[in-house]
Amino acid sequence: MKVQFKKLPSNNPSLFPEDIYSKIPQNHPVRLVNEVVESINIDEIIKQYKGGGTSSFHPRMMIKILFYSYLNNIYSCRKIEKALHENIYFMWLSRNSIPDYRTINYFRGKRLKDHINQVFAQVVKLLEELDYVSLNVQYVDGTKIEAKSNRYSFVWRKSVEKNKTKLEEKIKAVIGQIESQIKSDQREIDTIEAVKPIDSKELKAKIDELNNQLQDPDKSTQREIKKLKDDHLPRLEKYEKQLEILGSRGSYSKTDEDATFMRLKDDHLKNGQLKPAYNAQISTENQIITHYSIHQTPGDITTLEKHLNSFEELNGVQSKEVVADAGYGSEQNYEIMEEKEIDAYVKYSFYYKEQKLHKKKIPL
Questions:
Q1: Does pLDDT of 189 surpass 50?
Q2: In sequence order, which residues have a C-beta less than 8 Å from that of residue 330 and are 6 or more positions away?
Q3: Is the model more confident about 12 or about 352?
Q4: Residues 99, 57: contact at Cβ < 8 Å?
Q5: Range of weakest confidence among 14-23, 157-166, 314-323
Q6: Long-range contacts of 310-316 (CB under 8 A, 24+ apart)
Q7: Cβ within 8 Å of residue 165, ≥6 positions away
């Protein structure tokens, strides 16, 4: 028998072209994203546009394509631009506007960056009005998210502090030798003070002072002053900058200074080494994320207070109940939740160990 195949539609333009957007189902997620973004207030984002020059893509449209991209696990600006050329859902959402990847990246990194929390809070408020969530309870948990940075670019607080102390000792010794020459005409030379922290501003002032006091320094003294200015001073400034970046942290990555080195869970190769990461805290209700916060400390126990405070600040209300695992159990956290009049369903740190000990004591 002769094989029959279905006839392919023509690629030639027709007099009455088909509406391709009619192929998008009414209950498709892209329509939900469109409705949600249309309902939120973006006045603060619009205020950033000063007008004049070339026209800009509307921020509401940009937010729509970003939200829908994230919903489909698309995070690369180049891939988003590609989807705007090829994907019918992106075309419908953007109304055939095609911002390039640079424009998308600028909007995401500059215009939306400081307002994303408010946009997220408005979406949560909308879900509350639709009775999807009540905001009366938070199920809190954390996860480590590995940063897209060089995992071998370590900067450790202990190492910086150790090297800075050694450098300060060298600086004190050199300054002491130079001052000895200045006072060589005196019978007694004042003893050098014990090593104490010295900052770069003090060192600059000291170098200028020494240059003014020395009328005709010998070559050795000139070399020492030059070394103070060209070697010790830049190194001291570098250590000060590193400590400023560290803040209260113990480490950071040189290629992503906001990332802290944390021990992540073992991967498929059982590799649990330290990696640059962020500690993301998430609150949920009815399997819907109602709040998130990003922290630079590896332990969950220290993040709860800031997480609860930011929840209240963004949503204008505090939950009546908090449910979390033993990783959040501490006397300080219990006191914080009691002050906020929150019913805490949080195990304390040694709960599971006590349960094991209790089972061992039970006679067979």
A1: no
A2: 301, 348, 349
A3: 12
A4: yes
A5: 14-23
A6: 310/117, 311/138, 311/283, 312/340, 314/117, 314/118, 314/120, 314/121, 314/124, 315/121, 315/124, 315/125, 315/135, 315/290, 315/291
A7: 195
pLDDT given for residue 191 in this prediction: 44
Contact 307, 281 (CB under 8 A): yes
| DSSP tag of 272 | -
Strand pairing report for 343-346 and 288-295: unpaired
Distance (Å, rounded) from C-alpha 216 to C-alpha 205?
20
The Cα 209–Cα 212 span in angstroms is: 5
pTM of the model: 0.76
Query: For 336-343, which contacts have Cβ atoms below 8 Å and span 24 or more sequence positions?
Result: 336/304, 336/305, 336/308, 337/308, 340/308, 340/312, 342/308, 342/318
Query: Distance (Å, rounded) from C-alpha 63 to C-alpha 281?
Result: 23
For residues 35 and 28, give the distance between their C-alpha atoms in angstroms, rounded to a whole number: 11
Please give the Cα distance from 231 to 161 (Å, whole number). Answer: 18
User: Could you read off the pLDDT of 84-119 as tens digits, one per residue?
Assistant: 999 999 999 999 999 999 999 999 999 998 899 999
How high is the pLDDT of residue 206?
80
Query: Given the structure tokens 């949920």, which residue do they identify?
Result: 284
pLDDT confidence tier of residue 195, bands split at 50, 70 and 90 = very low
pLDDT of residue 138: 96
4's CB contacts (< 8 A; 6+ apart) are none
